[in-house]
Each structure stands twice: as C-alpha cells, then as structure tokens.
C-alpha cells in the first residue's frame, strides 16, 4: 500500500515526523506553568503561541495581502462630506483609530487586535472536560473576510488553564477569586510580548514585501457578559463600559464611561487603605470594581481602553436583556 500510494514514511512515527516538518503558520506551541504562593505544588498549565508570531502570520498572509488596511479612513453618506453624514462601517472608519494614529510617530501604523474567549464544556459524563480557547484576528482585515472560516483569518493562540482549584482550606469566595486571578495571570503571560511592541512598534513584513513599523494594540474583546465583567474587573451585575451599578442599569439617564485609569485608581486606593484582602475586596465592590483581582492583564498594555474594547453581547444583553422583556411588555399590553 505504501508503495502504491507513494508514501514517504513507513510507520506511524514516521508520519508524525513528516507532519512536524510542516512549517507552522503562527509559531510553535509552548507551555507555561502558573503557580500561586499558597499552593506552590499545584501547577496550572497555559498552552499558547507567541502572540507576535500569530500577528505576523496574519499580517504576512498572501491571501490577505490585497485586503489589509494600514491607515484610518473617513467615509460619508453624501458627496458633500457633511460631518453629520459620517458613515461608520469597518474598524478603520471609527474615530478610535484616528485618535490612536495621531498618538503614533509619523510612518507608524496599527495592528488592531480583536481577541475572543469562550470557556467551553466539552463533556458532561466523562470527567467534565473543558477548554478555554483564545482567538486572535485583526481589525485591519475587512469583516466580510475575517468572519469566514474558509479565509482562516482567525487564529487560535492559546488554551487558558482549566484545572480545578484546590478547595481544601479555602472558602467558596476564595476559590472563585482564585479562578479570576488565574485568568488574569494567564492572560498577562499571553500578552506580555505586545507591551513593548505596542509602545515602540515592531517591524512586520506584509505579503507584498513592504516592511512597516506596526503597533499591536488590543482594540476589541469579544466575550459574553460574565466574561466582560471578568476581563474588565467590573463587579458582576454592573455595566462593564460605564459607571452604572447593578441597580442603575434600567435607568434612562446616561452614566459617565468607565476608564482603565478609574478602575486601577480604585484598586490602588483600596490596597493602600486596607490591611486585609477582605477589606480590599469590600471597598472595591462598593465602587463596582471586582475586588478579587489586583493585577489586571491589561494594566500595562499601551493605548488600550479595556472598557471601550468590549463588544455587545447579543445573547445576554440584547435578547435576554431587552427583547425578552419587550415581548413580555407587548403581551401584557395585548
């Protein structure tokens, strides 16, 4: 059979060796063990790729060469370009891109990172297996292309730790807090390469052979509402984007937008005024900040507004948060 098919290997091990010789599109996988001081013998395993190599893979993909956009644009609905007729479609037409572009040195450009995470239950009856994938794509790629699986414009860059936290000697809130701390510790490792790259820029070669100084910047984070609270360090039940608390979400008034500086300030002031973690948590929660985390992964990411980056959660915020109640109201009126 091997001779008839013209196979270059004789055994299964030989096939695996040939597969390993195939060039990796987005860098090799590596593992990182994460430990906590109170349980030094319990490792949590993060499987990940180098995020810069993954960005370069998309940036230099020949299939995307004619579609990548390197600078912001303004679009209008009429020929007179009336400011009131400004049209917002792709990410590079947004005001955010213009603001960040003005902060960069002349000649530099942005790689706008779109990150998505979704903890997934794989099995129910054979061990309760879970996976926690992290995906990366670029806002420089038109949405009509990056949304198609066939275009391969979205790359799996990590599996976050899903090991069970030891419950012995811990209360239920402490176990929950450690899961949240584990998430931010793992994401800190994953995003570490773009801290300096985002500040100074890094040379990247596009498929047309051009070399550009690129600043990889976290622009959008796609997650459901519970994860939005986890990512932004917002108290569960409050708004991840503005300063509305759990009891204020149904009010019609506008609330000031939340900023990373506000969140970090609350954490720092609480830490300075408290001599115990429980007191720190209480003060943070009173200000709608998640007191279980003290070192968010986005703390040192340049040009990143983690609250602004949150995208709408259609299931929890639109269907279950709005449409569900609209249907009830309409039924009562009828």
General description of the model:
The protein is of the alpha+beta class and 334 residues long. It has one domain. The chain has a 7-stranded mixed sheet. A two-stranded antiparallel sheet has the order 3-4. A two-stranded antiparallel ribbon has the order 6-7. The mean pLDDT is 91. The protein starts with a helix and ends with a helix.
Rg of Cα set? 23 Å
Number of helical regions:
11
Into how many domains do the coordinates divide?
1
**What's the overall geometry?**
globular
SSE topology string:
HHEEHEEHEEEEHEHHEEHHHH
Strand adjacency order, main sheet: 1-2-9-8-5-11-10
Query: For this entry, what is the oligomeric state of its chains?
Result: single chain
pLDDT < 50 stretches:
none
Strand content: 15-25%
Q: Quote the distance from N terminus to C terminus.
A: 72 Å
Using DSSP, what is the number of strands? Answer: 11
Look at the structure and give the mean pLDDT. 91
Structural class: alpha+beta
Can you give the helix content as a percent range? 25-40%
Task: Please describe the biggest sheet, giving its number of strands, its sense, and whether it closes into a barrel.
Answer: 7 strands, mixed
């Amino acid at each position: 059979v091997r001779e008839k098919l013209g196979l270059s290997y004789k055994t299964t091990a030989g096939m695996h060796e040939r597969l390993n010789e195939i060039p990796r599109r987005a860098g090799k996988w590596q593992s990182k063990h994460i430990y906590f001081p109170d349980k030094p013998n319990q490792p949590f395993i993060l499987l990940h790729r180098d995020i810069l190599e993954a960005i370069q893979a998309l940036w230099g993909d020949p299939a995307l060469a004619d579609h990548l956009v390197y600078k912001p644009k303004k679009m209008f609905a009429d020929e007179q370009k009336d400011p009131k007729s400004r049209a917002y479609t792709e990410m590079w037409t947004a005001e955010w891109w213009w603001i960040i572009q003005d902060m960069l040195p002349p000649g530099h450009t942005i790689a706008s990172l779109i990150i998505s995470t979704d903890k997934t239950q794989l099995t129910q009856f054979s061990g309760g297996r879970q996976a926690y994938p992290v995906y990366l794509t670029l806002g420089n790629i038109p949405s009509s292309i990056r949304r198609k699986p066939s275009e391969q414009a979205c790359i799996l860059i990590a599996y976050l730790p899903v090991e069970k936290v030891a419950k012995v000697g811990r209360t239920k809130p402490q176990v929950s807090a450690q899961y949240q701390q584990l998430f931010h510790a793992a994401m800190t490792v994953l995003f570490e390469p773009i801290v300096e790259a985002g500040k100074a820029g890094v040379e990247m070669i596009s498929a047309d052979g051009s070399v550009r100084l690129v600043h990889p910047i976290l622009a959008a984070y796609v997650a459901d509402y519970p994860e939005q609270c986890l990512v932004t360090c917002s108290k569960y039940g409050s708004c991840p984007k503005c300063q509305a608390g759990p009891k204020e979400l149904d009010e019609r008034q506008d609330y000031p937008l939340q900023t990373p500086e506000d969140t970090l300030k609350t954490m720092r002031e609480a830490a300075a005024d408290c001599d115990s973690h429980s007191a720190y948590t209480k003060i943070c929660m009173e200000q709608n900040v998640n007191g279980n985390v003290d070192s968010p992964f986005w703390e040192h990411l340049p040009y990143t507004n983690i609250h602004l980056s949150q995208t709408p959660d259609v299931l929890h915020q639109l269907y279950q948060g709005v449409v569900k109640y609209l249907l009830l109201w309409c039924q009562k009126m009828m």
